Amino acid sequence: MKDFEEARKWGVDNNRIVYLGEFGAYDKAPTESRVTYTDYVCRTCEKMGWSWGYWQFDSDFLVFDVKTDKWFEPILGALIPNSPALK
Predict the structure, then answer these.
(1) In a domain, 74, yes or no
(2) The domain containing residue 48 runs over which residues?
């Protein structure tokens, strides 16, 4: 959280917009941990007024499985809690 606060302060002090890009949770980690981390980062960014970008859509940080043409719903829900794609 300290790093987030430092970045927030820098943005305010320098009148700059902060964008957090290319964060994610590797799919070899337990799903519950990935969801907790992803949700925390997204909600913290949003509370600070920042935009964010998840890395990556498919493959090792899976949010969408192109082979099955399906969302990996736990991570999608952490990224976009009210997504219409969630059942």
Answers:
(1) no
(2) 1-7+18-63
What CA–CA distance (Å, rounded) separates 80 from 83? 5
pLDDT tens readout for residues 29-84: 999 999 999 999 999 999 999 999 999 888 888 899 999 999 999 999 999 999 99
CA dihedral 82, 80, 10, 22 (to 10 degrees): 180
pTM metric for this prediction: 0.90
The structure tokens listed for 32 are 């519950």
Distance of CA 70 to the CA centre of its chain: 18
Q: In angstroms, how far is CA 16 from the centroid of its own chain?
A: 21
Residue 70 in domain = no
What gap in Å lies between CA 48 and CA 86, rounded to an integer? 26
Per-residue confidence (pLDDT) for residue 79, from 0 to 100: 96
User: How many domains does the structure of the chain reveal?
Assistant: 1
